[in-house]
Amino acid sequence: MHGLCRFFLEHTGPANSLGDRKMLPFLVDMAGLFERFVAMWLKQHLPKKYEIKIQERVEISTRVPTFQIDLVLYDAAQGRALMVLDTKYKKEQIPSNDDIYQVLAYTQVKDCREAVLIYPTDSITPIDAPVRDGRVRSLAFDLSGDLEEAGKALLDALGVSS
C-alpha cells in the first residue's frame, strides 16, 4: 500500500521498465469499480420520487440460478420497478447480444419495460430498440470529463432528472 501511495505523492506511476522502487503487482477490478461508482452516484443524486436498489437478487425458481441485477430503479411511492440498469465496463464499441439478452431477461423478471446498458464512455454505438411494449437502450456515464456533468446527462437520458 505504501508503494502505491508513493506513486501518488511523487506524481509518478508504474511502468514496464525496471526502476529504483519495488512494488508488488496489483489488479484493479475496473468493472466492479465502475458498477459501484455509478450505483453510489445515482443513489446520492436521484430525485426523492425514485429509489435505486443495488445488486438486487432475484430468484426465478429453485432449479434456476438467481439473478443478481446491478441496479433496479423503482417508483418510490408505488414500489414498482421502472427499469433495470446494467453497467458494462468493456472495450467493445457495440453492445453485445449477450448483454442485451441479459437485461431483457431482467425486465421480464422485474415486470418492467425499460432495460438500460450503461457504459463508461460515450463512444459506444448507441442503441434504442423497441422490444414488445418496452425498449432497450445503451447510455453513457462518461468518465473522460466532468463526472457531475456526466451523471446529470445520464439522469436526463434516463428521464429521471428533477
The count of β-strands is 6
Gyration radius, rounded: 19 Å
Report the span from N to C terminus: 41 Å
Sketch the topology as an H/E string, one letter per element.
HHEEEHEEEH
Summarize the structure.
With 162 residues, this protein is of the alpha/beta class.
Task: Give an overview of the whole structure.
- With 162 residues, the chain is α/β, with parallel strands linked by helices.
- The chain has one domain (28-158): Alpha-Beta Complex (tt1808, chain A), CATH 3.90.1570.
- The protein is built from four helices and six strands; from the N terminus they run ααβββαβββα.
- A six-stranded mixed beta sheet has the order 1-2-3-4-6-5, sandwiched between helices.
- The radius of gyration is 19 Å and the shape is elongated.
- The relative contact order is 0.13.
SSE order and pairing:
Blueprint lengths: L1 H8 L20 H16 L4 E9 L8 E9 L4 E8 L9 H14 L3 E6 L8 E4 L2 E7 L6 H12 L4
Parallel strand pairs: 3-4, 4-6
Antiparallel strand pairs: 1-2, 2-3, 5-6
For this entry, give a set of tags.
tt1808, chain A, 162 residues, 4 helices, 6 strands, 6-stranded mixed β-sheet, 31% helix, alpha/beta
